[in-house]
UniProtKB/TrEMBL annotation:
Name of this chain's protein: Alkylphosphonate utilization protein
InterPro entries assigned: YjdM, YjdM_C, YjdM_N
Originating species: Pseudomonas violetae
Residue intervals of the Protein YjdM C-terminal domain: 47-113
Domain of life: Bacteria
NCBIfam families: phnA
Protein family according to the UniProt entry: Belongs to the YjdM family.
Pfam families, A to Z: YjdM (PF03831), Zn_Ribbon_YjdM (PF08274)
Record domain Protein YjdM N-terminal: where: 3-32
Length: 113
């Protein structure tokens, strides 16, 4: 008799182990036992391009030329941005850049100063 838990998505009892992961053959959902809370804790910490943890109010530097969508403006490499705010979503930094105005940035294109 299998002691593996049922699938959390479809409740199928036919789950099987593949290394450290559990897999459901009916809905193809993959998960680990007990590790989901650790993954959620890591997702809440926003990190810059080199792995430094970002917080509200930090000062960052842009590490790549970024075109501003819908305009001919470009945020140049080395642009300093002060007093950032972290938010949820794909673009997880909300800030105001001098000469451009309010915008959202991805944390993968910035470095903490």
């Amino acid at each position: 008799m299998s002691t593996l838990p049922p699938c959390p998505k479809c409740n199928s009892e036919y789950t099987y182990e593949d290394g450290a992961q559990l897999i459901c053959p009916e809905c193809a959902h993959e998960w680990t036992t007990g590790g989901e809370t650790e993954v959620a804790a890591d997702d809440t910490a926003k990190k810059d391009s080199v792995g430094n943890v970002l917080q509200d109010g930090d000062t960052i530097t842009v590490i790549k030329d970024l075109k501003v969508k819908g305009t001919s403006l470009v945020v140049k490499v080395g642009t300093k941005v002060k007093n950032i705010r972290l938010c949820d979503g794909d673009h997880d930094i909300d800030c105001k850049i001098d000469g451009i105005g309010p915008m959202k940035l991805k944390s993968e294109f910035v470095r903490k100063v």
